[in-house]
Amino acid sequence: METPSWTVTRNQVPVERAAIPRMSPGALGEEIATRCQGGQRLAALFGVPENERLVLHAILADDGDGTLRTSSAECSPGETYPSITPAVPAAHILERELWEQHGLRPEGHPWLKPVRYAHDRRDRGQVIENYPFFRMAGEEVHEVAVGPVHAGVIEPGHFRFMCTGEQVHHLEIQLGYQHRGVERLLEGLAGPPHPGRNRLAESIAGDTVVGHGLAYAGVMEALLGLEVPERALFIREIALELERIGIHLGDLAAIGNDVAYLTGNAVFGALRTKVINTSLDACGSRFGRGWVQTGGVRGDLDGKQRSEIITRLTSVLEDASRMAETFFSTPSVLSRLEKTGQVPRPAAEAMGLLGLAARASGVPRDVRASHPTGGYARFPRPALTLAGGDVYARAELRSLEIRQSVELIRERLENFPDGATRRPPGGAPGPNRLAVSLVEGWRGEILHAALTGPGGEVIRYRIQDPSLWNWFGLALAVRRNGISDFPLCNKSFNLSYCGNDL
């Protein structure tokens, strides 16, 4: 009988590490390429040091049947293997990261450059000041450098444009200025999960408090074998959708500002305040800090609060819909949004774009639909998509998703279950296990994965914000556009610097 090359599991369902097949790096790469060409996608690829060796762990997602597949390969740090990227372009950032962290060299990789400049990187001679930017030759070609220091409170990131006149031919985005070592901070401790780890997870990306908090809680609950009460699951999903609505409204306001449509900027911005104040009333924080706890949530929603949430969101949706109808029918707005920053569907699929950026290009990637848990499994809804792939599509999809999120919240509140809101964790995570937690944050798929050792201690914690994949989508979007359109393209993606640098 043929030995299986992959172990099949699901979102937030742990597997025994001993059950994960192991092969050579080359064979693993061939398997990944074959399966991705067959319709699966590469969700994660990361290294785990083990007895002076390096074990690669690959996670594939099958969005058609809601399964995850995991396999591994053993190699030596600094070893060479055939690059996966020529066959699976989305692997480019993960292979670059493996090379930077462990010296594992993917032969044939077309874009082998550092990603984060972590303190414990393999080659300390690689310094951010010497980043090897792509260059174009030609008498009329000129470079425009922006950042890493920006105006206001924008985080550090450097953008290097290759232009002729005003037209952008290529944009290279250099990040890595604020690597915080978050993954390492979530590793090492044994015993029951410490509440401080929840707070740390919430801080991975400050605009995605609930999303990353849920991903952390989900992976720990899987390792603990902890069943979360249904009432808590519903409150969590209300929190996640409130976060989505608030950010989408804020982004629509910012897009309105970028195209000098100040009415849209003012109205969408005011509506955002109403939404985040709804979170404040429910949990004591406008951004949902401390709301999600391992085992459930902090606090509860009584009948009066539930009624007030429905009333407030109904009013917000009515006002947002009227503003959107005007916004998306104003000629001066449409002239700036339509056909600006286009990412065709084939490019979005090939580069592994996630979340709203993918769905606006017609790629139906939404964890709530493809890998659902809790109420998302009980009340299934399809992923919303648009075909344009431009700033207009990314803006209009935000408006459509606001309506969808209000409907999801109303659905949860009208079917609100009885019971507890938290089951406190007891004991340590199960030993020698791997668990993967996927959450559809407002940007897209958030992935947290954890491996435990023989004592239940977390020996490797892996985090992926959708920004890790989607920054390259922004680089594709600005090609053949005027450089003055970059701020608008950038806002239509609204990616995270710290979510990338970790």
Unreliable stretches covering 5 or more consecutive residues: none
User: What general form does the structure show?
Assistant: globular
Strand content: 15-25%
CATH architecture verdict of the largest domain: Orthogonal Bundle
Number of helices: 17
Main pleated-sheet profile: 5 strands, mixed
What structural class should be given to the helix and strand makeup? alpha+beta
Mean pLDDT: 93
Q: Please bin the fraction of helical residues.
A: 40-55%
CATH superfamily of the largest domain: Cytochrome-c3 Hydrogenase, chain B
What is the strand tally? Answer: 16
Radius of gyration: 22 Å
Q: What does this entry look like structurally?
A:
- With 502 residues, this protein is α+β, with helices and mostly antiparallel strands.
- The protein has two domains: 7-115, Beta Polymerase, domain 2 (2-Layer Sandwich); 199-458, Orthogonal Bundle (Cytochrome-c3 Hydrogenase, chain B).
- The chain has helices at 25-37, 92-102, 182-185, 195-202, 209-224, 230-258, 262-283, 303-327, 331-337, 345-350, 355-359, 367-370, 375-378, 391-414, 467-477, 486-493, 497-501, and strands at residues 7-9, 15-16, 22-23, 41-50, 53-62, 67-75, 80-82, 105-107, 141-146, 158-164, 167-174, 292-293, 296-297, 433-440, 445-452, 458-464.
- The strands form five sheets. Strands 1, 3, 4, 5 and 6 form a five-stranded mixed β-sheet that branches. A four-stranded antiparallel β-sheet has the order 2-14-15-16.
- The radius of gyration is 22 Å and the shape is globular.
- The mean pLDDT is 93.
